[in-house]
Amino acid sequence: MGKIKSGRKAAGDYPVGRMIASQLRHPGVMVPLLGIPALGVYGVTQGWTRPLIGAGVLVTVLAVWALVWRVSFRNQVVYRVKAWYRRWFRYAPRWWFWMGRLGLSVTDEMTGWILRPRILKVRSTGCIDSVLLDLPLGVRTDQVMQAVPDLRHAAKARRVAVRELEPGQVWVDFFTADPLRKTILPALHPVRLNVRDLDGLVLGYCEDGTPWRLKVVGRHVFVCGVSGAGKSSVLWSLLWALAPYIKAGLVVVHGIDPKGGMELDFGRELFDRYEADDYEAMAEMLEQDADYLDDRTKLLRGKARTFTASRETPFVLIVIDELMQLTVLLPGPEGRRLSARIEVALGRLLGKGRAPGFAVFATSLLVTKDVVTWRELFSTKIAMRLDNEAQVEMALGEGARDLGAECDRIPESLPGVAYVLQEGKREPVRVRAAYMSDDAIRDMATTYGLRGAIEPVDSVTLINPNTVDGEVVESGEAA
Ligand SMILES: Nc1ncnc2c1ncn2[C@@H]1O[C@H](COP(=O)(O)OP(=O)(O)OP(=O)(O)O)[C@@H](O)[C@H]1O
């Protein structure tokens, strides 16, 4: 009969002695550790002058580096030392044990050896440890994905995500701290405008602390989330990023607010065309935009394959705040007729809008097919807080929830947080949009709105939005 374990042993304590012994066999940990006693021996036998001079030079170089090139010092020194420490003192000693416990091991039938995923590399930043694993034949990526909840508990991580690098190798990301916990201020505008920057407008921050860049030119964007999820912060962050381009006449925004102007009215002056009350006029606006798109396509045909915004052919962004109001909630037979017209016009815009420089930005509370008929035609989907896993899959596509898009777990206390699928990446990225208060939106609208004459591109005045009580607050890392 097997022994019954109780107390700490029942929870599964680590075979500490064996773990330490196995670590000490690796040069990655032994060489740096042996260096210190070796230096001591050298000092005692040969004198301390040289070691002390060497240490002084090293400290001075590091101090100057840290003071003058802060970011490079952080990336090249701090994060590397952290990765080394995490690899050898946190993950490596426990890894063999964890893999065995989670069933990620296979036994070779010829030799009887037990094979488990092996750590190849560890990368660390301020908030993530990424562990690259080499999977033995017989352990698959989806098995590692299934072990994510257990790995999260084992590593006491806030979130764990798995992404395949190549067959047989996967990255396991342990998210330790959350840089998105605090409200993010809008990014400063660039000093000089460059239409190429429209390919990566900064809307907030990603979970790894890097800026969240959204491409709108050539993309249709769909934002969904329950009431209070912070959909409007994505919209206003985008309009903030576009504001100098609007002022310069390179971008034109058409706004439709079927909720009677409750949202878009704050930034009324930014919109070249705007409808908030008359549904017929909204349908007409979308139809005219679709006609304008056809004309633009003819104009550009044979001239350029990729669109570049200019004063003559500005980039046109059509903003619809709450699509649901237009597609399913218009009352009576007349409402249904209008909805049908709106669907057709939207289909025309979404099906063709990329090359001629048109994009649709729509938000919605629900993601079902009856609400968003043309869901697949939106190339960028941003999913904020949602009610359940099924909604997540509908919003971001099948399998997105398993790949880490835990929209149903975004707490109410974190409005503005979303998961987004980025170009070229299979795994969703967790982001948070910057937040603009109603007053900041009004200020933006009066400063960059269309009432004033369009300014020469070179002389766009840059205003810092991050002013609290008259004091300028620097924006950089997520605050
Ligand atoms: N990015 C953000 N950072 C911090 N707080 C935010 C952010 N976005 C929204 N909030 C806060 O959450 C509240 C609700 O957000 P918001 O109105 O944008 O949600 P919504 O999804 O547009 O809701 P609804 O569909 O009801 O209009 C805001 O009043 C604001 O206080």
TrEMBL record:
Q: Which domain of life is it from?
A: Bacteria
Q: Where are the transmembrane segments?
A: 28-45, 51-73
Q: Which SMART domains match?
A: AAA (SM00382)
Q: Give the organism, scientific name.
A: Kribbella sindirgiensis
Taxonomy of origin reads: Bacteria, Bacillati, Actinomycetota, Actinomycetes, Propionibacteriales
Q: Does the keyword DNA-binding apply?
A: no
Domain FtsK per the UniProt entry, residue ranges: 188-393
Note the Gene3D superfamilies from the entry.
Answer: P-loop containing nucleotide triphosphate hydrolases
Which keywords appear in this protein's UniProt record, sorted alphabetically?
Answer: ATP-binding, Cell cycle, Cell division, Membrane, Nucleotide-binding, Transmembrane, Transmembrane helix
Tell me yes or no: is Plastid among this UniProt entry's keywords: no
Q: Which InterPro entries match?
A: AAA+_ATPase (IPR003593), FtsK/SpoIIIE/SftA (IPR050206), FtsK_dom (IPR002543), P-loop_NTPase (IPR027417)
Q: GO:BP terms for this protein? A: cell division
Q: In its UniProt entry, what is this protein called?
A: Cell division protein FtsK
Return one GO MF term.
ATP binding
Where ATP is bound, by residue? Answer: G225, V226, S227, G228, A229, G230, K231, S232
